[in-house]
């Protein structure tokens, strides 16, 4: 034994006990607990328990050895050889569901400790949890059906089945053996005495029986044969390849915690380490950082079962190469080859079957005494080094925990102010970057959304109809009568009545139109403003869970308002834009009668504005004089406004509807055939911007002729006749339009006045109430159509609104960029500690208690210095 060990042991016992006393004292100090967080408290409790385990190990001098290996490599025989007694079951069967412990006892006996029902069910539920049983907490091993478990397993994918196979087998076996298992639960500890030479078999069934063993929590076999190594406890750990999932966990746990490990290998059948063994050994590092090679022994067992000496030597070489050279998990002097079976035979512990003779032929030893001596030597020398390292590591960790606590709390208030300033700068930079990123994203999103939704245009088109309601003859008659009554005249000429009536209607239109415009964007503005506001809050990482959320939100609203007030949306914005393209239209179409000198004069005054507006109606006239635009003819001569159709599909349907009016013709073909045949003509009408009504009226003349034909002739000529009449109608419309252009050319392309005079000369003045009603209603409808289809194109409300949004976003970004603006600096100064209140409150709480903490840390430092 190490001559200095007793002295060192007493020194370490003093250190460990003192360390635990210090921890206990610290926990009893009410002030000190206030500066130790829960994580550190839990760590200190774990270190205390470790110290207690070391104290117990030092006092008792205990030394734990774990026997590990694959199943059926002779681990139990090896264990029997170590204790020189046939106490462990050595047949080829499964081991207990917990490690079997071998230790010294004055009498040979087996202590069997059983699970309680509660403990067993808790372990069983952990298996169910790993097996993905949803309500695993409510299950009981005695009531769960095998059928349900099998159904869950069958529903798994093939890859899942591979990983869950062990768990499935465990659960199934427990349910199958539940009646046997139940008999032994809650039995506490049962002791069975073992007579030398007449070994009782009863206790072995708790190790080998598939069902009984599951009820066992712990098996301790005591042997008087271990009197020379009383301090050693040997654990027969389940095999690496055990099908039970619990065995794998137990093996890893023992490798990590044991003072020494004996790896038993069947040197005859499997001399080479398999991947499972290697992974467990390399990954299951010692809990205290001790390298595996410092505490691993390897015993190549069953060498006597090799066919011949050459096979034996070859296999021994393979094993040593793997262990020593390839994986470097053991030292060469700790790799021994032999046979536990031979040792048991030679010592008359089991009957001989001739294996010892075979070993003699190989000129080899059983090596049991040799490995026992190696373990004793290790126990008396190296194990002290390992134990010392473990204790030192635990004490060092304890000091580290306390030193960290002391360092964190021995801080002056100036340090906290500096920490707060540094945090503030860091968060300001983060906020600036976040806002820029989020607002640029918002800009792109809103552009796409505003254009796609087209809500301003939709709202305008839906509401502009309300500015003018068609008048009736009765309304005009009553109005004229009322005017005659008020002026005390006998009659009111139609011309004067037209003027007077239009003046009233104009007043109503001018009154109604602003209402339409001002309500266009009210709802949309709120939605888009809220979106920008929320994006700003997202960039600040502020959610409603923040206790200052409402205050921060108000502050953000105020900041945005202060920055964007000059470019924020105003109801007047749209009014200004739309009025620019609308007021003259209302004036000329509603206020002044058709063909009147006033309408002509109004045109001359606002002539250029009308030309500009006309370009938004039909771009195909851009290469002709402005005064020849169709819109000018609508305004001055009340010609029909040929609205630009959305596509030739609309025109195609109009042609089809014309054919449908003549069933005898239409019913000759199905609708799809008609559409297909009419398509080239609708496309030509659309491309040439021809008046569809003119074309249809020409076609209708021919349809009347077809309708009177006999059936046979109709069927033979109808389609060709319809297509011919369409071509003729299109040619007529085109030539008629071309004729107008030629007439204009004859007047002189630069002779605008003559063209306008000619246009006005064609206008017929309204001479009856009926004509006035018709004239005013056409002007009113033309006004609405122009507003919906021309003015809207010119105003482009979505673009105008988006321009406002973009200006607002860019102004905000400019103000926050590089933190240059006074407004943004004030905003941050007012809100940053609210936005990240958790971080700042933590610093301030520590700062406010820094003096107290320093005092506690000083007191703590004095106490800890004794460790």
Q: Which features does this protein show?
A:
single chain, 867 residues, mainly alpha, 65% helix, 6% strand
What would you say this structure looks like, in words?
- The chain is mostly helical and 867 residues long.
- Among the domains are: 426-641 and 771-839; 648-737, no CATH class.
- Helices cover 65% and strands 6% of the residues.
- The chain is built from 37 helices and nine strands.
- It has a nine-stranded mixed beta sheet, sandwiched between helices.
- α11 links the parallel β7 and β8 (296-301).
- α16 (382-409) runs antiparallel to α37 (850-864).
- It holds the Pfam family Dynamin_N.
The residue-averaged pLDDT reads: 83
Instruction: Flag low-confidence runs.
Output: 642-646, 737-749
In which range does the helix fraction lie? 55-70%
Q: What is the beta-strand fraction?
A: 5-15%
Question: C-alpha Rg, in Å?
Answer: 51 Å
- Order of strands across the widest beta sheet? 4-3-5-2-6-1-7-8-9
Largest sheet: 9 strands, mixed
Number of strands: 9
Give me the secondary-structure category.
mainly alpha
- The outline comes out as elongated
How many individual helices?
A: 37
Q: Give the N-to-C terminal Cα separation.
A: 28 Å
């Amino acid at each position: 034994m190490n001559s200095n060990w007793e002295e060192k042991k007493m020194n370490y016992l003093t250190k460990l006990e003192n360390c635990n006393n210090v921890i206990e004292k610290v926990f009893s100090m009410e002030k000190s607990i206030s500066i130790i967080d829960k994580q550190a408290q839990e760590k200190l409790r774990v270190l205390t328990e470790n110290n207690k385990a070391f104290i117990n190990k030092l006092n008792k001098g205990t030394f734990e050895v774990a026997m590990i290996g694959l199943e059926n490599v002779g681990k139990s025989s090896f264990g029997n050889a170590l204790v020189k007694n046939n106490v462990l079951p050595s047949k080829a069967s499964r081991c207990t569901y917990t490690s079997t412990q071998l230790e010294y006892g004055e009498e040979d006996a087996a202590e069997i400790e059983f699970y309680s029902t509660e403990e067993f069910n808790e372990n069983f539920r952990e298996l169910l949890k790993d097996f993905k049983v949803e309500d695993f907490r409510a299950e009981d091993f005695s009531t769960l059906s095998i059928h349900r478990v099998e159904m869950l397993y069958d529903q798994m994918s093939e890859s899942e089945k591979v990983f869950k196979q062990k768990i499935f087998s465990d659960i199934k076996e427990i349910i199958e053996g539940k009646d046997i298992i139940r008999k032994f639960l809650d039995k506490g500890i049962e002791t069975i005495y073992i007579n030398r030479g007449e070994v009782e078999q009863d206790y072995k069934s708790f190790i080998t029986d598939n069902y009984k063993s599951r009820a066992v929590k712990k098996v301790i076999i005591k042997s008087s044969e271990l009197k020379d190594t009383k301090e050693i406890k040997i654990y027969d750990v389940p095999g690496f390849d055990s099908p039970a999932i619990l065995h794998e966990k137990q093996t890893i746990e023992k490798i990590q915690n044991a003072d020494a490990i004996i790896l038993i290998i069947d040197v005859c059948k499997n001399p080479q380490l398999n991947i499972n063994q290697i992974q467990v050994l390399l990954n299951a590092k010692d809990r205290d950082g001790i390298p595996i090679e410092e505490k691993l022994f390897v015993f190549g067992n069953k060498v006597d079962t090799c066919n011949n000496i050459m096979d034996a030597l070859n296999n021994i070489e393979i094993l040593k190469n793997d262990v020593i050279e390839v994986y470097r998990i053991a030292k060469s002097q700790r790799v021994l080859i032999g046979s536990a079976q031979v040792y048991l035979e030679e010592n008359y512990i089991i009957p001989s079957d001739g294996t010892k003779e075979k070993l003699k032929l190989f000129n080899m030893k059983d090596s049991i005494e040799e490995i026992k001596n190696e373990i004793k030597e290790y126990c008396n020398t190296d194990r002290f080094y390992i134990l010392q390292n473990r204790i030192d590591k635990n004490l060092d960790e304890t000091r580290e925990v306390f030193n960290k606590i002391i360092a964190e709390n021995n801080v002056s208030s100036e340090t906290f102010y500096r920490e707060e300033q540094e945090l503030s700068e860091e968060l300001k930079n983060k906020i600036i970057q976040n806002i820029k990123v989020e607002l640029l994203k918002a800009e792109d999103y809103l552009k796409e959304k505003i254009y796609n939704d087209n809500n301003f245009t939709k709202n305008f088109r839906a509401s502009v109809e309300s500015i003018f309601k068609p008048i009736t003859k009765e309304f005009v008659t009553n109005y004229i009568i009322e005017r005659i009554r008020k002026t005390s005249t006998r009659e009111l000429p139609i011309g004067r009545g037209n003027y007077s009536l239009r003046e009233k209607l104009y007043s109503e239109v001018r009154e109604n139109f602003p209402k339409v415009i001002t309500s266009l964007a009210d709802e949309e503005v709120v939605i888009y403003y809220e979106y920008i506001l929320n994006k700003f809050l997202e960039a600040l990482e502020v959610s409603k869970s923040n206790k200052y959320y409402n205050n921060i939100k108000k502050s953000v609203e105020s900041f945005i308002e202060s920055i964007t007030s000059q470019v924020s949306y105003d109801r007047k914005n749209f009014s200004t834009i739309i009025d620019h393209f609308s007021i003259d239209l209302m004036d000329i179409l509603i206020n002044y009668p058709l063909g009147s000198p006033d309408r002509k004069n109004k045109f001359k005054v606002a002539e250029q504005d009308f030309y500009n507006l006309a370009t938004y109606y039909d771009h195909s006239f851009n290469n002709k004089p402005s005064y020849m635009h169709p819109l000018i003819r609508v305004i001055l001569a009340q010609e029909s406004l040929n609205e630009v159709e959305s596509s030739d599909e609309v025109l195609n349907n109009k042609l089809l509807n014309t054919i449908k009016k003549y069933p005898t013709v239409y019913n000759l073909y199905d609708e799809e055939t008609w559409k297909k045949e009419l398509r080239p003509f609708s496309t030509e009408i659309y491309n040439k911007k021809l008046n569809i009504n003119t074309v249809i009226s020409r076609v209708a003349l021919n349809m009347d002729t077809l309708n009177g034909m006999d059936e046979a002739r109709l069927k033979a000529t109808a389609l060709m006749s319809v297509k011919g009449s369409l071509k003729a109608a299109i040619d007529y419309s085109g030539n008629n339009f071309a004729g107008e252009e030629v007439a204009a050319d004859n007047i002189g392309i630069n002779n605008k006045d003559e063209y306008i005079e000619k246009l006005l000369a064609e206008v017929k003045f309204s001479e009856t109430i009926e004509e006035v009603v018709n004239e005013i209603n056409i002007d009113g409808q033309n006004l609405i159509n122009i507003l919906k289809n021309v003015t809207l194109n010119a105003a482009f409300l979505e673009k105008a609104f988006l321009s406002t949004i973009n200006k607002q976003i860019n102004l905000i970004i400019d103000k926050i960029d590089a933190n240059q603006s006074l407004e943004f600096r004030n905003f941050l100064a007012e809100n940053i500690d609210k936005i990240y209140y958790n971080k700042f409150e933590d610093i301030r709480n520590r700062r406010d208690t820094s003096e107290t903490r320093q005092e506690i840390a000083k007191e703590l430092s004095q106490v800890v210095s004794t460790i």
